[in-house]
From TrEMBL:
Keywords: Isomerase. Belongs to the isochorismate synthase family. SUPFAM superfamilies: ADC synthase. It catalyses: chorismate = isochorismate. GO terms for molecular function: isochorismate synthase activity. The keyword Isomerase applies. InterPro entries: ADC_synthase, Chorismate_C, IsoChor_synthase. It comes from the Bacteria. This is isochorismate synthase. Pfam families: Chorismate_bind. It comes from Polaribacter filamentus. Gene3D superfamilies: Anthranilate synthase. Residues 62-312 form the Chorismate-utilising enzyme C-terminal domain.
């Protein structure tokens, strides 16, 4: 096997592990099942995280991001955009990089997330702990979710969400319902709840349904990705604004990854578990690129949106 060869999925009918970019017009990378080895290991969760560690924001980065948010708000108000998710990246120098220890810290800090390490010699090293499921499907029965809104966890999940956050969450839920109604049946939308991811809280709404016989996994993935939780609404106009105005390339941040069409003795057909690539970083030698963003609506406050990205970046920095 040539371990440096890049494989891609053509139509999501293959089996293996998929790693897809934010831009849904680009190809999704595949680790094919037939060329992969499966190794299991018991990992200790005794890695230490310094919860009291403080970080100092870059004033230039702050000014740049606030200007981007302000421009986004202006664009929303003068066009038919309802929401746009804008993001930024931070560069963090790493001393004594230890992959296993960082992975342990991610597992320890994100007990309710999908935690991963992904590497290919032509792409590089990525780590993440995402709280958001893009899609789980077993025997045509699928589950997805809308996830939006962010608050710092302060010893309780019994909090009050403001109208901006509630409206943002509803936009995502409405989009998912609209996208899935024509390709599925028995759609069920659960009650919105507050969930904890690391030291942050989010609003989550679970959506379940049954994929129609004439629809495929590719149809389902195309309907969902990228969701308004990572892109915006309307989707294509939001995506165009992001690609033209963010000051970097997202690459695999806000893409998706996971197991694709793996066979199980429990189900009649192979099942897939795909997750949105949030709370992630790429590693290049002794430098970590951390990716953070937030959903912008007409009611957003640029300074508060900056602070939200700071809170998200600090959570990731504590594992380094």
């Amino acid at each position: 096997m040539n371990v440096e060869r890049l494989f891609y999925t053509d139509d999501f009918s293959e089996s293996g592990f998929v790693f897809a970019p934010f831009d849904n017009q680009q190809k999704s990378i595949l680790f094919p099942l037939e060329t992969s080895d499966f190794i299991t290991e018991n990992i200790s969760l005794d890695a230490f995280i310094d919860e009291e560690k403080t970080f100092f924001a870059d004033e230039a980065a702050k000014e740049t991001h606030i200007k981007l948010v302000e421009k986004t708000i202006e664009e929303i108000k003068k066009n038919d955009l309802k929401k746009v998710v804008v993001s930024r990246t931070e560069q963090v120098k790493i001393d004594d990089f230890n992959l296993v220890v960082i992975y342990q810290k991610l597992l320890q800090n994100y007990k309710n997330a999908f935690v991963y390490v992904w590497f290919h010699p032509k792409i590089g090293l990525w780590l993440g702990a995402t709280p958001e499921t893009l899609l789980e499907i077993k025997d045509s029965v699928f589950t997805t979710m809308s996830l939006a809104g962010t608050q710092l966890y302060k010893d309780t999940e019994n909090i009050v969400w403001k109208s901006k956050e509630l409206n943002e969450q509803q936009l995502v839920t409405d989009f998912i319902e609209s996208q899935l109604s024509g390709i599925s049946s028995n759609l069920k939308i659960d009650k919105t709840e507050t969930v904890k991811a690391g030291s942050l809280l989010h609003l989550k709404t679970k959506v379940t349904g049954v994929l129609n016989e004439k629809s495929s996994l590719k149809t389902l993935v195309s309907a969902l990705h990228p969701t308004p939780a990572v892109c915006g609404m309307p989707r294509e106009k939001s995506k165009k604004f992001i690609l033209e105005n963010e000051n970097y390339k997202r690459s695999f941040y806000t893409g998706f990854l996971g197991e694709l069409n793996l066979q199980s003795s429990t189900f009649k057909t192979p099942s897939s578990s795909l997750f949105v690539n949030l709370r992630c970083m790429s590693i290049n030698k002794n430098n970590a690129s951390i990716f953070i963003g937030g959903g912008i609506t007409k009611d957003s406050n640029a300074a508060k949106e900056w602070e939200e990205t700071v809170s998200k970046s600090n959570v990731m920095k504590r594992v380094l």
